[in-house]
Amino acid sequence: MRNLEFKEQMREYSQWRSKLMQAIEMYQQWRLRYGMHDAESDNTILNLLSGLKSDRITLAFAAEFSRGKTELINALFFAETGLRLLPSAPGRTTMSPTELFWDEEGGSYIRLLNIETRLEDVSLIELKQEPQRWKHIPLDCNSPTQMQEAFKELTAKKSVDREVAEKLGLWSKREAAEQGNLNLAKVEIPCWRHALISFPHPLLKEGLAILDTPGLNALGTEPELTLSMLPSAQTIVFLLAADTGVTKSDLEMWRSHVFKVSSGSKQSVAVVMNKIDAMWDDLTGEKGYESAIHSQIKASADILRIDEKAIFPVSAKQALLAKVKHDPELLERSRLATLENYLANDILKERRTILMNAIVRDIGFMVNESLSLVDVSYSNAISQLEEVKKIDFENKDMTGKLLAEMRDRQNQYMATVENFQTSRQVFLTQAKMLVDSFGKERVDEIVKRTREDMAKSLTTYSMKQNMRKLFDELRDLLQDSVDLTNETRRLIKAIHKKFKDEYGFVEIEPQLFSIAAYQLELEQIFAEGEAFRASAKTTMTEQSIVINKLYGTLIAKARHILKQAHDDAATWSSNVMTPLMHQIKDYKKQIDGRLLMLRKINESKGNVAESITALEEQLKQIRKQREELVFMIKMMRTEGLQFDNK
Question: Is 504 left (phi over 0), alpha (psi -120 to 50) or beta?
Answer without folding.
Answer: left
